[in-house]
From TrEMBL:
Cofactor(s) the record lists: Zn(2+)
Pfam families linked: Lactamase_B
PANTHER family (UniProt xref): HYDROXYACYLGLUTATHIONE HYDROLASE GLOC
Species assigned in the record: Eiseniibacteriota bacterium
Matching InterPro entries: MBL_Glyoxalase_II, Metallo-B-lactamas, RibonucZ/Hydroxyglut_hydro
Protein name (record): MBL fold metallo-hydrolase
Record-level Gene Ontology MF annotations: hydrolase activity; metal ion binding
Length: 214
């Protein structure tokens, strides 16, 4: 039985929080809770989900500020790429810079590594390191779906003007690590609607085939 993705659209920046659920056991990975942890907890309780993993694609405030609330209420092992630890350590300062309320990071962060395989109910979730939006940005892949965080969006890419950002690194990561996954792969981004690798490979104005000709 494969893992199903359920999206919640939360907060002033229209963040996508994902619940990755094994429909047989109800074991769940919670991905990128920035805003609205109460709504996430309500969904977990209503659907009788069992939280095993807490995963962050990166450590910007709008993706991590609500993760501690989920951890305290539900438990679960928390994972983040070590290159984003400095961002996690300065979560409160990140929020203050954008006039968001104070937030504390989750406890006991486990390190993510490129090509790591994380098990959820016997199913493997692959970690793909895609720096550029942040130094420790990652995507999570299982079968025909990809949670891309702020690496790749429908018709866009993550901003690279924040500390630690690099357009060159992001472009290389997308073209060399994501576009090779196959055009049929469904992309579930950190903001906005879903897309596919094929759509972005062909038409993304920043990193797609047409961008190479510009």
């Amino acid at each position: 039985m494969t893992l199903a993705i359920h999206a919640l659209h939360l907060g002033p920046l229209d963040n996508n929080t994902y619940l990755v659920v094994h429909e047989g056991t109800r074991e769940t990975a919670v991905v990128d809770v920035g805003f609205g942890p109460e709504a996430v907890l309500e969904t977990i309780a209503r659907r009788k989900l069992v939280v095993r993993l807490l995963l962050n694609t990166h450590a910007h405030y709008d993706h991590v500020a609500g993760m501690r609330a989920i951890q305290q209420a539900c438990g679960g092992d928390y994972y983040l790429h070590p290159a984003d630890r400095p961002l996690l350590d300065h979560l409160a300062e990140q929020g203050a810079a954008f006039d968001f309320p104070p937030a504390e990071p989750p406890d006991d962060a486990h390190d993510l590594a490129d090509r790591q395989s994380i098990a959820l109910a016997g199913e493997a979730i692959e970690v793909i390191h895609t720096p550029g939006h942040s130094p420790g940005g990652v995507c999570f892949r299982h079968g025909r779906w990809l949670i891309s965080g702020d690496t790749l969006f429908l018709g866009s890419i993550g901003r690279t003007d924040l500390p630690g950002g690099s357009f060159e690194e992001l472009e290389r990561a997308i073209r060399e690590r994501l576009f090779v996954l196959g055009d049929a792969v469904q992309v579930h981004p950190g903001h906005g609607p879903e897309t596919t690798i094929g759509e972005e490979r062909m038409h993304n104005p920043f990193v797609g085939e047409n961008a190479r000709l510009a």
